[in-house]
Amino acid sequence: MSDQLPVPSPHPQTAALHGRLLAGENVVATVEVDLDAQGRFAQGLIALTDARLLAYEPAVGTWSDYVLSPDQSLKLSDHGGLAFLELFDRERRLARWRFTLASNPAAVRLVEAFLREQQRLAGVAVRAAEDEEAGDDFDFGEASAPPSTWVLLRLWRFARPYQGQLLLGFALMLGATGATLVSPYLTMPLMDRVLIPFQNGQAIDPGLVTLLLSGLLGAALVSWAMGWAKTYLLSLVSERIAADLRTSTFEHLLGLSLEYFGNKRTGDLMSRIGSETDRISVFLSLHALDFITDVLMLAMTSIILFSIHPGLALATLVPLPFIAWLIHLVRDRLRTGFEKIDRVWGEITNVLADTIPGIRVVKAFAQESREARRFKDANANNLQVNDRLNKTWSLFTPTVALLTEMGLLVVWGVGIWLISHQNITVGTLTAFLAYIGRFYGRLDSMSRIVSVTQKAAAGAKRIFDILDHVSNVPDPVNPQPFENVTGAISMQGVNFRYGSRSIIRSLNLDIRPGEMVGLVGHSGSGKSTLVNLICRFYDVTEGAIKVDGVDLRRVKVADYRRHIGLVLQEPFLFFGTIAENIAYGKPDATRDEIVAAARAAHAHEFILRLPHGYDSLVGERGQGLSGGERQRISIARALLIDPAILILDEATSAVDTETEKEIQRALDNLVKGRTTIAIAHRLSTLRKADRLVVMDRGEIVELGPHDELIAKQGHYWRLWEAQARRVDAEADEDGGLMVVAPNPNAHTVNA
C-alpha cells in the first residue's frame, strides 16, 4: 500500500497562481469563488500573498492583482444566500467578488489574514507566539461582518428531521388563525340583522341570535384548541432543534484542533453554546411562531377586507409604506447592535470564567477588588451598548404605534363618509374596524419581532462561526485501520510553522518500539511542539510522522490517540470521584482494574486515606489534593489505558524531592515496555532514557546517551554545566546544607 496521502483535487488555476508569484512571495490564504460577476456558476480564485491580492476572473479568463497598501480595506458580507467580498481604497471600490456561502469559511480566514498583513504593512506589531508553548494562541479568527437575517435559514438543516411535526403545526396554525377571523365576520349580521333592527322597533329573532352566538362560541373554542395544540407541538420541536444545535456545536467544537482554542476565551465559547442556543430556541418556539401567525393573519385579513369593501381596504394600507421604511431603517442598527451586545456579554462571561476557577489565586494575592472592577467595567460596557440600542428601539416602537393609530383614524373618516353616502352599513364598518384592530395589532407585533429576529440572527451567526470552522487536523476520507501498535515512530523531513514563523526545521528522528527518549533544550527550542506533532494536536507543514510505518494523517485521530498516554506537568482532574478520574480514558474499566492502576501509580495508599476512598469526590480541577497526588492519579489514568506510546511532559518539575521519588517509582512502572518520549528539567526523570535528543531552534543538534553527550562537551554538556553551577549556587545560599553529588545523574538539565 502506498504511503502517499490522498489529496483533494487542486483548483484548475492553482498552477497558474504559482506561476504568477514573484521571487520570495508566499501565499497566505485563498478562497475558491464559485460565481462570476453576473452571478453565474464559474470557478474563480482569490489568493492573498504577503505582497498582493490576486484574483482569477472566470468570466473573462484573466488574472487581476492589487498591491497591498495600508489604505485598503476588505469587506465580507452576505445577503440572500450569497456572500460578497469587496476591496476598497480610500476613494473607491477596487473589486467585488461574489460566491455562495459554501466558500464563506475560507473567506472569513482570508479577511483575517488580510487584516494581519495590513497591520504588518502599517508597522503595527502583529501578535505572534514568543515560543513554541505559545503557539496554540495563533488564531485565524472570525470575520466581523454584521449578521444577516438570512443566516436563520441555515437552521433548516436542524429542523429537517422534524418536518412532519412542523407541517402539522403549520396546519394547526392555519386553522387557529382562520377561526379567529370568524368572530368579526359574524358581527356584521349581528349588528345589521339583530341590534340595529331592534333599535328601530323590530323583534329579535331568537333562532338567529342563537345561531350567531353559537358560531362565535364555536370559533373561539376551535381557535383555543388549535392554538394550544399548535403552541405545544411547535414548542416541543423548537426545544429539540435547539438541543440538536447545542449538541452539534459542542461535538464540532471537540473535533477542532488545538489551534482553534488558542485565542478563544472559555466564557465566550460557553456563552455561544449556552445562551445563544437558548435565545434561538425562544425565537423558534415563540417569536418565529408569532411571526408566521402574524403573516397569515395579515394575508387572510387583507383578503376579507378587500372582499368586504376594496376602497375601505385601500385606506387601511396607508401606513404600510411608512412602517416598512421605518423597519428597514432600524433593522441594520439593531443587528449590529445586538452583535455588539453578544460580544460584551461574552466579556462578562469571560471575567466569571477566569475569576471563579482561579479564586484561590485571587484571594492569595488579595485581588478581589481588582476582579470586582474588571466585572464592573465589563458590566458598564454592556450597559452602555444596551443603552445605545434601547435609544433606537424606544423611538421605533411608539412611532409604529402612532402610524397605526393614524391609519385607524383614516379608516374611521372614510367609513363615516361611506355610511353617510349609504355605500356601506354600520355593521360593515363595525366588522371592518374589528378586522382593522387585528390587522394593525399584528402589524405592530411584526414590527416588534424585528428586534428578536436580529437577536436570533446575531446568535445564529456566532453559532455558525463555530460550525463553519474546519479542523486543521482532519480525519482522512478513507482511514486506515490502526491496531496492534508497537510504538515505532519515524519522523522524516518534518517542518512545522506557526503562522509565518518556522518552529521545527528539517527534523529526522527514528524511535524504536519500547525505547525511552528524552527531549532537552532551552525554552523555545521546539520540544513541546514536537510532542504536539507526535500526539497529532497539529499536523506537520512538510514531511511526515509515521507510527509503525503508517502516516498519522492516514489514520482517524481518535483511533491513533487511543494508543497514547499523556502525563502533563499540570495534571487536569475533572469534578467527580477518584475512580471516575482514573477511568476517564476507559470508562468501562472494572473496580479491580482501577485499583490495579492506582497501585502501580503508587496512589492506592493515599486514596484509601480519603474519607470515601475511591468514591471520594475530587473538587473542580483537583482541588483538595496535593500536586503529587494529582500527578499520581494522572499516571494511574495513563496506566489504565495501557498505551503503546507514552508522553511525559515535565511530569515531576512542579513537586518536591520526596514527592518526586514517589512519582518516579510510579513512572518506572508506567514506562516498562512502552515507547516513551519525556521532556524534563530533572535528570532524575531521564536517568533511564536510552537516548537524549538535544534540540535548539527547532533542530536536533545532538543525539545519544547521557555519557556520550557529556564526553562530546557540546550543547548538552553546556546545559548540564549551567545546571550544575545553579545547583551549587543554591547549595551555597542554603548555608551549605545541599550536597551536590559527584554523579552527573544527580544534576538537572534545563529543558
Automatic annotation (TrEMBL):
Keywords linked to the UniProt accession: ATP-binding, Cell membrane, Membrane, Nucleotide-binding, Transmembrane, Transmembrane helix
Q: Where in the cell is it found?
A: Cell membrane
- The keyword Membrane appears for this protein: yes
Matches recorded under Pfam families: ABC_membrane, ABC_tran
Please give one Gene Ontology molecular function term for this protein.
ATP binding
**Chain ranges of the ABC transmembrane type-1 domain:** 167-455
Q: Which CDD domains match?
A: ABC_6TM_exporter_like
The segment(s) forming the ABC transporter domain are 489-722
Name recorded for this polypeptide = ABC transporter ATP-binding protein
